[in-house]
Design brief:
The protein contains nine helices and no strands. It is mainly alpha-helical.
Length: 182
């Protein structure tokens, strides 16, 4: 019974919560909580379920550019790339295609190379071009939408993981109390 609102942006439509999205987020949180604490060497041994190895490599690099290793573990050390792979392996086809399109967009912008093969400064420059601080042009709109979505996934995956909960000083598990009926 919903009507389409003329002039409403794709980003605004995408951000509107749906029952399916809420359920997927719950499944994603459960999957993230089930992931063991990863090490940098374990990230190298990762075999993606949904992505090709090349797409997985791009995902790992971008995840670590979003949340690099500092005094806290990086996104890949927390297993965020595995969480995203798992979540997308059960996502709807249009969501999968949009994400794959974003990864392909990054490689296309590498101009004759792959995103992974670019120097660190070039990778950062490309991501700054599509960051939230800049207004997207017609040329960068696809990349900007993808990068915004990816940042949300990385942050959600990181801070719902065991590693992220430790960084926040939260307990490893969440105690659930039985809800009383009405």
């Amino acid at each position: 019974m919903s009507q389409k609102t003329p002039g409403r942006s794709l980003a605004a439509k995408r951000r509107r919560p749906t029952r399916r999205g809420v359920l997927a987020a719950g499944v994603g949180a459960a999957a993230a909580a089930a992931l063991p604490l990863q090490t940098a060497s374990a990230a190298v041994d990762w075999q993606p379920k949904f992505f090709t190895p090349e797409q997985g490599a791009v995902l790992q690099v971008v995840c670590d550019l979003i949340l690099p290793k500092t005094s806290t573990p990086s996104a890949t050390e927390a297993g965020v790339h595995e969480y995203i792979d798992e979540a997308l392996s059960v996502a709807e086809a249009d969501e999968q295609l949009a994400f794959l399109g974003g990864l392909a967009w990054l490689d296309d912008r590498a101009r004759g190379s792959s995103f992974v093969a670019l120097a660190d400064a070039e990778q950062v420059s490309l991501l700054e071009e599509i960051s939230d601080e800049r207004s997207p042009t017609a040329e960068t709109r696809t990349g900007a939408a993808f990068f915004s979505d990816l940042k949300e996934r990385v942050l959600f995956g990181y801070y719902t993981s065991k590693t992220g909960r430790q960084v926040l000083g939260k307990p490893e598990g969440v105690r659930r109390e039985k809800l009383k009926g009405c």
